[in-house]
Amino acid sequence: MSARQPSPDAPPPLDVHDLTVAYHKRPVLYGIDFQAPAGSLIGIIGPNGAGKSTLIKAVMDLLPTASGWVKIFGKPFKKAVTRVGYVPQRESVDWDFPVSALDVVLMGRYGRLGLLKRPRKKDRQIALDCLEKVKMRPYANRQISNLSGGQQQRVFLARALAQESDLYLMDEPFVGVDAATEAAIIDILRELQAQGKTLMVVHHDLTTAPKYFDRILLLNMRVVAYGSTDDVFTSENLQNAYGGRLNILTEVALERFKKKNEGDPKPAKGL
Amino acid sequence: MLRDQESGIRSQGGTWPPDASSPEPDQCSLGRKAEDSEPNIPRPQTSDLRPLQSTWLRPLLFFSLFTIHHSLFLSGAHAAKISDLTQTNWTDQALDFWSFQEPIVRTVVIGAALIGLCCGLLGSFLVVRKLSLLGDTLSHAVLPGVAMGFLWNQTKDPVAILIGATIAGVFGTVVVSWIKQTTHLKEDSAMAMVLAGFYGIGVCLTTMIQSQPTGDKSGLDKFFFGQAAALSGEDVVVIGIISAITLIIIALFYKEFLAISFDMGFSSAIGLPAKGLHYILMALLTFAIVVSLQAVGVVLVSALLITPAAAAYLLTDRLRSMLILSASFGIISGVLGAFISYLSTDIPTGPLIVIAATIIFTLAFFLGPRHGLLPKFIRRRRQRRRIGMENTLKAIFNLSEDDDFHSREFTLQALARARNTDLQEAEKEMTQLIRNEFAEAITTSHQLTADTQFRVTERGWLRSCEIVRNHRLWELYLSQAAHYAHDHVHDDAEEIEHILGEEIVQKIEDRLSNPHEDPHGRLIPTRQQTLG
Predict the structure, then answer these.
(1) Do B270 and A143 touch (CB under 8 A)?
(2) What is the pLDDT of residue A127?
(3) Is omega for the bond preceding B158 within 30 degrees of 0, making it cis?
């Protein structure tokens, strides 16, 4: 498969401008600005509660945003749904649910199928191929609770692969997986990248981050630093993200946000 | 019984819920004394303090007890029966019932079956989404709406009641999510409060209506504990329409409902109208509850939602078959409940339907092939027997090994000594081995003595080699790879030898580069030996 070469003036796969998200009147993200260039593998790094998952969810319209906008290939998310693949956190679902691994991967096809249409032979074949890619083909008919944590994570990845998207958003795909699965996942991510797809991956392990990603978004409620791994992954930036001097700014912003929202259950527009 | 008499409703007088032919319709509801002609008849206990239930198992238990309680104490009070005829014997009655000759039997059976179908289908989604308490909340929340629908044109008009109940149900769920969003109270507390609050309002409204002088109020009291026999043809038409809508929508949107039930976030992310689908499901649920109220009652309808689905959940691990099973269980419960109610002259239908569902759940709980207690017990026993046989075979291998593998024959006495047991026990073990063709007796006499000779069969020999191989390999693995002390490895190997599969044994052999001797210096049977 040849890598798709984006024309220089094509809109970027992901363009986030001044994005602010609030939960229960507390800002979780504010003023997020960045663009993801086509064919990049970007790690979203930051401490607990930095808003990494929130950013991904806000990009996909799963959370209401207080201000700012998101564009996927130059379009609002609703118009580019099929171009976005998603791997949620593994703990976000009940793994006792009565479905097989293949059923779960088939769900990746539902977005393209649209309402009322049933999965066809072709969709099943794609789902099986995706299971094969994550080396889970022999487990296709297992009920998902009979899979190990790493296998469950692979099934989630296979489901995203079945979406056949151009931009992938992955929430902690490396959490709770064995070393073999971690290596298998990173191989697949690199392969997707080689096909010209764009990937944004929430990651918590600082030791592997510079090895895995060519761009890094350091996040702590705001964008602390964003750019190529070499530029961003400096001790100073990490210090800033993980509890450095900018904490005061965060605190003040929080206070300001609270004041603005007093007596107003809806989040205010902007800060 | 004492609780019955102390309950708040009880104090409003013996006429609640009144019979259709209540002789004093113009009484004021407050402060009324029990002037019923049968003052000693126990009343349904409607002011039950219901515990918070976060799982479906607890409500199940609760409902079974509750149902039994009510079916015992309600009897005779005001129970309309499907058949008021005093038939000669129950076989005639049964024949009568299953021939569906009487129109009322037909109405009730169709109504009960359709209710079971609807509740079974929709309840499955509640169970897999861990929303069991929602069914309970909705069923209680609709009660004020039932009363309002009744007040609207002063008769038991099914359509008006359906509309009123739906509005109340939707309002109830809105209140729940409103509480959840604006406070830091969790959903279960919000649901429990709405459930109780709405039910309280409903009980007051219904009681007030009952005491009004005008209108045809017959059947309103049935909404509390249900009376399938009170279903009219009109009711069954409404039930039929709702069932058809439910079936069609679930069939059409099965894929979507599966997706949102498993992973709401992902479903939205791929562009499915997840929220809309959720509300459609909730609307169907409200309809199903409302049409079930008359037959099963406010208090028991959530059992009909959860119990068949819970039974199905124990029996299968695919949503599709769970839906089919759950719907079937619902139908069976409905028809069975109606049938038993027809046979016995004074037990109302609703509680019987729920008891039938609970019996199905109990059967699934004990007999279900995967999670049932009995199959688990049998599997464990079979396993224990297998381990016992394997231990005997191992002893036989050791006997032969002591003899430098010259012979595969041995006496009962020798085996008993090797197994460190008495002759009687050794005889039992040998009987077991012979039955499984692992060994055979050489002597022709039927009388077994200490000197009776046995020979291990080829099959038995291979198996014994396999066990010994597992045992010694595992000992070696523990001492070499896991650095256990030599005298620590035996007990562990005693257990592991019975569960090691060929695949793992191969891995261990590779890891130890095909060893020949165990840590105690004894030979390890080779793979070729175990394969014959």
Answers:
(1) no
(2) 96
(3) no
| A229, pLDDT greater than 80 | yes
In the structure, what pLDDT confidence band is assigned to residue A247 with cuts at 50, 70 and 90?
low
What percentage of chain A reaches a pLDDT higher than 70? Answer: 87
Output the CA–CA distances (angstroms, integers) from residue A73 to A16, A57, A257, B310, in the order listed: 11, 17, 31, 46
Which range has the top average pLDDT, B61-70, B72-81, B282-291?
B282-291
Distance from CA of A239 to the nearest CA of B (A): 33
Output the DSSP codes for B136-155. HHHHHHTHHHHHHHHHHHSS
Q: Which of A106, A110, A113 to mutate to test the interface with B (most CBs of B within 10 A)?
A: A110
B301-315 vs B103-128: helix crossing angle, rounded to 10: 60
- Evaluated on CA atoms B145, B148, B154, B159, the torsion sign reads negative
Do the Cβ atoms of B261 and A159 come within 8 Å? no
Whole-angstrom Cα distance, residue A101 to residue B451? Answer: 58
Pairing status of strand A41-45 against strand A215-220: parallel
Nearest-angstrom CA–CA distance, B85 and B311: 35
Q: How confident is the prediction for chain A on average, in pLDDT?
A: 86
A84 touches chain B (CB under 8 A): yes
Gap between the Cα atoms of A147 and A105, Å rounded: 14
Residue B147: which region, alpha, beta or left (left: phi > 0; alpha: psi -120 to 50)?
A: alpha
Which pTM was predicted? 0.77
Are the CB atoms for B147 and B209 separated by under 8 Å? Answer: yes
DSSP A75: B
The 10 Å CB-count burial string (b at 16+, else e) for B259-286 is: bbbbbbbbbbbbbbebeebbebbbebbb
Around A262, how many Cα atoms within 13 Å sit in the side-chain half-sphere?
A: 6
Q: Which of B20-24, B66-70, B360-364 has the lowest mean pLDDT?
A: B20-24
Find chain B residues with C-beta within 8 A of A145's C-beta: 317
Q: What is the distance between the terminal CA atoms of chain B, rounded to a whole angstrom?
A: 73
Q: B393 by DSSP, 3-state: which? A: helix
In the DSSP assignment, the letter for residue A100 is B
Higher model confidence: residue B213 or residue A92? A92
pLDDT digits (tens, 9 = 90+) for A42-97: 999 998 888 999 999 999 999 988 899 999 999 999 999 999 999 999 999 999 99
- H helices of A12-120, in order, are 52-59, 101-113
How far apart are the C-alpha atoms of B371 and B132, rounded to whole Å? 21
**SS3 state at B253:** coil
Distance CA B343, CA B80 (A): 13
Closest CA to B320 of A90, A82, A156, A143: A143
Q: Give A172-203 pLDDT, tens digit per residue.
A: 999 988 888 899 999 999 999 999 999 999 99
Strands A215-220, A222-228: parallel, antiparallel or unpaired by DSSP? antiparallel
Residue labelled with tokens 């609780």: B3
Measure the CA dihedral A205/A208/A214/A220, to 10°. 20
Number of CB pairs, chain A paired with chain B, less than 8 A apart: 83
**Chain B interface mutation, best of A23, A59, A94, highest count of B Cβ atoms under 10 Å:** A94
The angle subtended at Cα B191 by Cα B185 and Cα B196, nearest 5°, is: 120
Q: Do A115 and B253 touch (CB under 8 A)?
A: yes
The residues, any chain, with a CB within 8 Å of residue B135's CB and separated by 6 or more, are B123, B126, B285, B289, B301, B302, B305, B306
pLDDT at B41 over 50: no
Helix (H, G, I), strand (E, B) or coil at B517: strand
- A7 backbone φψ class: left, alpha, beta (φ>0; ψ -120 to 50): beta
By the 8 A CB rule, do B148 and B136 touch? Answer: no
